[in-house]
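Exercise 7. Predict the joint structure of the components listed below.
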Amino acid sequence: MGISAAVAGASGYAGGELLRLLLAHPGIEIGALTAGGNAGTRLAEHQPHLLPLADRVLAPTTADELAGHDLVFLALPHGASAAIAAQLPADTVVIDCGADHRLVSAQAWEEFYGGEHAGSWAYGLPELPRADGARQRENLRGARRIAVPGCYPTASSLALAPGFAAGLLEPDDVVVVAASGTSGAGRAAKVNMLGSEVMGSMSPYGVGGVHRHTPEIEQNLGLAGNQPVRVSFTPTLAPMSRGILATCTARLKPGVTAGEVREAWQNTYRDETFVHVLPEGRWPRTADTLGANTALIQVAVDERVGRVIAVSAIDNLAKGTAGGAVQSANLALDLPEVLGLPLVGVAP
Amino acid sequence: MGISAAVAGASGYAGGELLRLLLAHPGIEIGALTAGGNAGTRLAEHQPHLLPLADRVLAPTTADELAGHDLVFLALPHGASAAIAAQLPADTVVIDCGADHRLVSAQAWEEFYGGEHAGSWAYGLPELPRADGARQRENLRGARRIAVPGCYPTASSLALAPGFAAGLLEPDDVVVVAASGTSGAGRAAKVNMLGSEVMGSMSPYGVGGVHRHTPEIEQNLGLAGNQPVRVSFTPTLAPMSRGILATCTARLKPGVTAGEVREAWQNTYRDETFVHVLPEGRWPRTADTLGANTALIQVAVDERVGRVIAVSAIDNLAKGTAGGAVQSANLALDLPEVLGLPLVGVAP
Amino acid sequence: MGISAAVAGASGYAGGELLRLLLAHPGIEIGALTAGGNAGTRLAEHQPHLLPLADRVLAPTTADELAGHDLVFLALPHGASAAIAAQLPADTVVIDCGADHRLVSAQAWEEFYGGEHAGSWAYGLPELPRADGARQRENLRGARRIAVPGCYPTASSLALAPGFAAGLLEPDDVVVVAASGTSGAGRAAKVNMLGSEVMGSMSPYGVGGVHRHTPEIEQNLGLAGNQPVRVSFTPTLAPMSRGILATCTARLKPGVTAGEVREAWQNTYRDETFVHVLPEGRWPRTADTLGANTALIQVAVDERVGRVIAVSAIDNLAKGTAGGAVQSANLALDLPEVLGLPLVGVAP
Amino acid sequence: MGISAAVAGASGYAGGELLRLLLAHPGIEIGALTAGGNAGTRLAEHQPHLLPLADRVLAPTTADELAGHDLVFLALPHGASAAIAAQLPADTVVIDCGADHRLVSAQAWEEFYGGEHAGSWAYGLPELPRADGARQRENLRGARRIAVPGCYPTASSLALAPGFAAGLLEPDDVVVVAASGTSGAGRAAKVNMLGSEVMGSMSPYGVGGVHRHTPEIEQNLGLAGNQPVRVSFTPTLAPMSRGILATCTARLKPGVTAGEVREAWQNTYRDETFVHVLPEGRWPRTADTLGANTALIQVAVDERVGRVIAVSAIDNLAKGTAGGAVQSANLALDLPEVLGLPLVGVAP
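Solution:
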């Protein structure tokens, strides 16, 4: 019985969150756990919260260790997944939490990542509306290779896509400023990510359109509106472990009313389990998504400047990475899409 | 089908955590939600993370609203539960998250709380060892009135009880210094609990043996060792929302070895699902218990001073309040004790 | 000897920061301290860090108590300062930390604040460039009534004004998204500002152009560029006590180069003590301004979208309120502008 | 004119705080800045808050670079200072912020640090009372080699010394549990000190009497009471950058009253500028010491258990390291002891 899943990169933050979610998943059994430099050590040294797996010893990340599972999650440094995936059977469901297969455009890949484009996989953001009226989830049912979105693109795309899908927004002059918790930077030891450096402080990074999530946001919004979109994206680092708050703004097309905006956003997510447009007057807080696979969204029109402001909150490790990965795996495996995924954040 | 549960005090932190756990509990259905001053408002205004209950309107906290359920959780200000409970049928399982029925000694009640003692109920700390070799859970099976322990007593008692149960510790000169997250102070608006006041700061309060959890810790350790125990208890406030770290120290009886200490602690919790003695050399972090019903414990002997130092970490709202409440309810209702309770914290 | 200063609103955050700075000011003596509801209590109850003033008893905030000083700082709720100021001698230097006299436009006042416009005072942002080549400090020398800018306008205006003063930016499609520490919300006890609510969370508020600092930012940028400017401003709340990080973006005029942008920003602040344009590649962190009267600024051009992104970091209570107030007082009193003001933040 | 000071280890946290204080010191000029692995880089890369020194290039830490100054501060890894100091002229004032010369007992050194004892220097805790009625500051006037205390010993010794000096406390069964901000762990990149790991979490470390500050606390309290003292010391890590809160408890000698305790503590620090015993009922918060050279202390008697509980709050980098260093330097150089040292913390 059960589907077996291997997790590569089990000692990192994305790997840990995958395991936390899989431990609560009624249809998936946890198989091999692998790591790079941490191979040979026990999981408890890296993920002391994962009590049921404390004594599991990490194997090295090789295709041999990962083979023989129905499902393989790759939470590896960028650039490492294509080679591993090529060695896995074609009918294994491979879910890549890294960036390698997110971008369709080889040119955008080369501009922002450099090196050769590894090709694109089915994009794991099921709720994303497309201009043709379908959702991205259609591409995920039965897929065998899936690219999990970046955390910023998940937050930003869900926030603004309803407006593009409904044809209400101008495709240029989109501005996204997003704040992320520190876990988005991963578990590597760096001086600038020490607690002493980040607590009590906010700072930007990757300013000026150079952050690699920029073309991914543009790809998603372009898909939603069926036209090219240009985005000014600025990420900032916030003094919290988890959470992304994306403040996204775009110019309204002439004559669009606040009522049309509200209706478009509500209609887009009316039937979604994990993406919620909040009642008017309430704004999302990242804390309400902690540990949950949810995205909380609110939208307002600033009539003085003719702009829509859409704000979304997610947990970067949950809906922004591991939750999106498991949700996509459910679709690929013909399991109920919401199976095993938490809907309620841990607050306060 | 299913057991129906009402929650009184649903707009507070304990009430919110109860609801978060009950939403994930496969054997309990959520019935009436009541509040005091917040009666008449929607739950979403107070608990925006509880998406599935967002539109529930809070009823006033009266026996009428709470009656007709199999299970009633009371998360009320101290002093309010006895009167409500008296109006509920004797076969309703009433779980009081407040202090009213925790202390057996009327004298201790009067000294620390003042006013008349409302009598004691079965004490909801299932794993607590007793000198007779049994556990506290024996008193909870089938109980109809249960007092949930205070959060500090849960952390402190679990940390030191093994040593008293095994007769290894002197009953005087016990010192407990514990740090708590701010949610322990509840949801009332107070200047000294503002984010600006607590972030970046540690401070003590209730110093000098005046904190009301002191006699409760003494009661538990006395029960474990079958002799009176005196505790110097100092609580401190830490800049985090959740979590208690209790550093507990007691003098060793002459001749007790570190090996005996280790064995006593390990034996006490070997078969427990939620209470873990960590492998030697690893110390508990509160973050690893976030949202989980777990207590992580480590113990060391300081031979220079002849003391044992036992440290425990819990989530004050989960194992320290709502988790302990649900675990006790499971026992009272003859459900599996661990049913619906999370074992894995949300980290990092 | 020395100039005597009274502080009205001494028990709040702005009042406390004024006193912290004045205690270190070699040319000003602290006189009367007044409060509203806290009148009659000792300062130590509210500002335990101000050790040298611990035993000072707060007087009620009346013109009588404030009269007889050379300098009066008003850190009062909005709407209270005009009446008090009217009762003080015309040659007393009155520095209002509230909003009442910041806006020149009565229409903007009525739209955003409502009620009658109290008139505008000299605007206390000395470094703000104006289209005529002068700085705002010219208006402050010898002034007797000064309005201290809002904290967001200080951060945002300093960030973008160089581009408007140099004629490089389009006046529409300006977008500002700013994150503030919680002290910006003041010291009133509110549930949504409790530590438990704000720690580990980011959230927006005042979305859609309704925040009262919006017209003030527009006023400043309009003054810098001598043309009306429209701003989309979204404030967010960050889990830290102090600090504002303002991410400000505007469209470049056709043909403007990155070199021209860099030069404009550097030239604007080359001779300023407190406002620093960082070397290329380094981005401001709010922690580096903690307790200091500094603004740290960086700017980049995103050529893909034709926008400039300027980011500034300040301490909302220091440069954003009390530091700006003292700097303005120095100018009004013909003291050296930088006297007594800290240039070095407390980091890490 | 003025005294010239070199700082070795200028890129670390202690070095940065020394420079922050020295920049505000009217009698000391900053000379050479040196570093180990960071030699050759600009200070701004490591200490962006130290604007006036931004462009200073760090020299390698050698005796040659440090020679020729009146005053040399060593903020080096443990074990490095003795060799450097031996190469500096005997009349240079050398202030060691490391541990090498704190302990008088070679045996204690070998037990806790290992290796050869480098000998002890004058101990830089001026306010520490001694059993003979003098203060430690007597040893510092005119000293040429000074060992700055550890941050935990500063907090703990100041908290309990009054009771030992007055003969009120039993010398065994002293228990100290202290919480420290993360800057106490220094600026080295370690996974367990990442912001993601420490935010929202409390954890102990060095449990069981193994922390190297243990013998130093015992030395200080022994000096105060003129008899050996044994201490159980447990340090914990708190989610804040700066601050130590030390909760210190000891058994009272028979018959000692609360009044005698209060009097002893108040008398000890009555004339001290930086060490304050708070009024009854108020407890210290670390935030009130942020950036200041102060120690805030409160004491209570728990009559039920016959113990005194003394709590102190300091800034570990200020009074706990760099502030104590500068205060000691002032004494060594016959400057006013308080010169240039901040008395007011940056709160909130």
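Discussion. The longest helix of chain B spans residues 151-165.
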